[in-house]
Amino acid sequence: xxxxxxxxxxxxxxxxxxxxxDRAQSEGETSRRGYKTQSPDTSxxxxxxxxxxxxxxxxxxxxxxxxxxxxxxxxxALAGLRLRxxxxxERELRMRLAATRIDRETMIQAFGWDPDQHAP
Length: 120
Fold this sequence. Notes:
With 120 residues, the chain is mainly alpha-helical.
């Protein structure tokens, strides 16, 4: 039977759904098979499909996905910095972003920017 993911349940094409083994688990809950998904709001079937896709991806596709996710994280971090520092120019925002990943000494040596002097 073909499975269709519907909300947090896996519906079978023949009718009905599997409300035990393949449904998304509540936090800390595992299926009858003892498997616990990576996220409590993800069904086992959805996770299986995702992992299968990851297994079939070419290395360049995985690298591209990682780069896109990294850019998205940077954009979210910059949005938060803009909210907390509305008067900061683009350079200061980029320095603040870099300072979340680079130690103080390196920030001073590489960029001449001391995060402690620009503390929130």
